[in-house]
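In full, the data.
>
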Amino acid sequence: MPPLFTIGYEQVSAPAVLDTLAQAGVGLLVDVRAVAASRRAGFSKSLLAAGVASRGIDYLHLRGLGTPAEGRQAARTGHYDEMRRIFAEHLATPTAQEQLDELAGLAAAGRAVCLLCYERHPEHCHRQIIADLICERVGVKVEHLAAPPV
Protein backbone atom coordinates (compact mmCIF):
# COMPACT_ATOMS: atom_id res chain seq x y z
CA MET A 1 0.00 0.00 0.00
CA PRO A 2 1.33 3.45 -0.83
CA PRO A 3 1.59 5.97 2.00
CA LEU A 4 -0.98 8.68 2.46
CA PHE A 5 0.80 11.82 1.29
CA THR A 6 0.13 15.38 2.39
CA ILE A 7 1.36 18.69 1.00
CA GLY A 8 0.92 22.37 1.75
CA TYR A 9 1.37 25.13 -0.79
CA GLU A 10 2.45 27.98 1.50
CA GLN A 11 5.58 29.67 0.09
CA VAL A 12 5.73 27.46 -3.02
CA SER A 13 4.73 27.81 -6.66
CA ALA A 14 2.07 25.72 -8.38
CA PRO A 15 4.64 24.16 -10.78
CA ALA A 16 6.79 23.12 -7.79
CA VAL A 17 3.80 21.44 -6.13
CA LEU A 18 2.85 19.69 -9.38
CA ASP A 19 6.43 18.46 -9.85
CA THR A 20 6.56 17.18 -6.26
CA LEU A 21 3.25 15.32 -6.63
CA ALA A 22 4.33 13.73 -9.93
CA GLN A 23 7.74 12.71 -8.55
CA ALA A 24 6.07 11.03 -5.56
CA GLY A 25 3.73 9.06 -7.83
CA VAL A 26 0.53 10.63 -6.52
CA GLY A 27 -2.56 9.45 -8.42
CA LEU A 28 -5.23 11.49 -6.61
CA LEU A 29 -4.95 14.93 -5.06
CA VAL A 30 -7.61 15.47 -2.38
CA ASP A 31 -8.17 19.13 -1.62
CA VAL A 32 -9.21 19.40 2.04
CA ARG A 33 -9.75 23.16 2.10
CA ALA A 34 -13.19 24.42 3.12
CA VAL A 35 -12.84 27.09 0.44
CA ALA A 36 -10.95 25.91 -2.65
CA ALA A 37 -9.96 29.41 -3.67
CA SER A 38 -6.63 31.12 -3.35
CA ARG A 39 -4.96 34.39 -4.20
CA ARG A 40 -1.89 32.31 -5.04
CA ALA A 41 -1.57 31.61 -8.75
CA GLY A 42 -2.57 28.08 -9.71
CA PHE A 43 -4.20 27.06 -6.44
CA SER A 44 -7.86 27.91 -6.98
CA LYS A 45 -10.00 24.84 -7.58
CA SER A 46 -10.34 24.91 -11.39
CA LEU A 47 -6.71 25.86 -12.06
CA LEU A 48 -5.43 23.30 -9.57
CA ALA A 49 -7.63 20.55 -11.04
CA ALA A 50 -6.39 21.42 -14.55
CA GLY A 51 -2.78 21.51 -13.37
CA VAL A 52 -2.85 18.09 -11.75
CA ALA A 53 -4.79 16.65 -14.71
CA SER A 54 -1.96 17.78 -16.98
CA ARG A 55 0.30 15.52 -14.90
CA GLY A 56 -2.10 12.56 -15.02
CA ILE A 57 -3.30 13.11 -11.46
CA ASP A 58 -6.98 13.10 -10.51
CA TYR A 59 -8.48 15.84 -8.32
CA LEU A 60 -11.17 15.62 -5.64
CA HIS A 61 -12.40 18.43 -3.40
CA LEU A 62 -13.70 17.20 -0.03
CA ARG A 63 -15.01 20.51 1.31
CA GLY A 64 -16.52 18.79 4.35
CA LEU A 65 -13.00 18.03 5.60
CA GLY A 66 -12.01 21.69 5.56
CA THR A 67 -11.48 23.75 8.68
CA PRO A 68 -14.37 26.07 9.60
CA ALA A 69 -13.68 29.81 9.35
CA GLU A 70 -13.04 30.23 13.08
CA GLY A 71 -10.51 27.38 12.97
CA ARG A 72 -8.70 28.98 10.04
CA GLN A 73 -8.56 32.25 11.97
CA ALA A 74 -7.11 30.46 15.00
CA ALA A 75 -4.43 28.85 12.81
CA ARG A 76 -3.57 32.19 11.14
CA THR A 77 -2.98 33.75 14.55
CA GLY A 78 -0.85 30.84 15.79
CA HIS A 79 -3.50 29.36 18.12
CA TYR A 80 -3.02 25.80 16.89
CA ASP A 81 -4.57 24.11 19.92
CA GLU A 82 -7.72 26.19 19.39
CA MET A 83 -7.73 25.25 15.69
CA ARG A 84 -7.45 21.57 16.63
CA ARG A 85 -10.35 21.88 19.12
CA ILE A 86 -12.57 23.59 16.55
CA PHE A 87 -11.66 21.06 13.88
CA ALA A 88 -12.31 18.12 16.23
CA GLU A 89 -15.84 19.45 16.80
CA HIS A 90 -16.29 19.85 13.05
CA LEU A 91 -15.16 16.26 12.42
CA ALA A 92 -18.12 15.02 14.46
CA THR A 93 -20.56 16.37 11.84
CA PRO A 94 -22.28 13.90 9.50
CA THR A 95 -20.77 15.50 6.38
CA ALA A 96 -17.23 15.28 7.75
CA GLN A 97 -17.78 11.66 8.81
CA GLU A 98 -19.11 10.73 5.35
CA GLN A 99 -16.14 12.35 3.67
CA LEU A 100 -13.68 10.71 6.07
CA ASP A 101 -15.24 7.37 5.11
CA GLU A 102 -14.88 8.24 1.42
CA LEU A 103 -11.23 9.20 1.90
CA ALA A 104 -10.52 6.05 3.91
CA GLY A 105 -12.03 3.97 1.10
CA LEU A 106 -9.80 5.64 -1.48
CA ALA A 107 -6.70 5.03 0.63
CA ALA A 108 -7.72 1.44 1.38
CA ALA A 109 -8.16 0.78 -2.33
CA GLY A 110 -4.44 1.32 -2.77
CA ARG A 111 -4.57 4.69 -4.53
CA ALA A 112 -1.62 7.00 -4.02
CA VAL A 113 -3.60 9.80 -2.37
CA CYS A 114 -2.25 13.19 -1.31
CA LEU A 115 -4.09 15.65 0.95
CA LEU A 116 -3.60 19.32 0.03
CA CYS A 117 -4.06 22.40 2.17
CA TYR A 118 -2.32 25.74 2.54
CA GLU A 119 -0.01 25.45 5.57
CA ARG A 120 3.55 24.39 4.76
CA HIS A 121 4.08 22.64 8.09
CA PRO A 122 1.65 19.75 8.69
CA GLU A 123 1.84 20.10 12.46
CA HIS A 124 0.12 23.48 12.06
CA CYS A 125 -2.56 22.15 9.73
CA HIS A 126 -5.75 20.14 10.03
CA ARG A 127 -4.49 17.80 7.26
CA GLN A 128 -2.24 16.19 9.88
CA ILE A 129 -5.33 15.32 11.93
CA ILE A 130 -7.09 13.89 8.88
CA ALA A 131 -4.01 11.91 7.88
CA ASP A 132 -3.65 10.44 11.37
CA LEU A 133 -7.31 9.35 11.39
CA ILE A 134 -7.05 7.73 7.95
CA CYS A 135 -3.83 5.97 8.89
CA GLU A 136 -5.47 4.53 12.01
CA ARG A 137 -8.43 3.26 9.97
CA VAL A 138 -6.55 1.91 6.98
CA GLY A 139 -3.15 1.01 8.37
CA VAL A 140 -1.06 3.10 5.99
CA LYS A 141 1.81 5.43 6.82
CA VAL A 142 1.82 9.20 6.32
CA GLU A 143 4.44 10.87 4.19
CA HIS A 144 4.56 14.66 4.19
CA LEU A 145 5.74 16.12 0.91
CA ALA A 146 7.34 19.56 0.69
CA ALA A 147 7.88 21.39 -2.57
CA PRO A 148 10.91 23.68 -2.70
CA PRO A 149 10.02 27.18 -1.46
CA VAL A 150 9.89 30.15 -3.82
Summary: The CA atoms of residues 34 and 66 lie 4 Å apart. The chain has a mean pLDDT of 96.
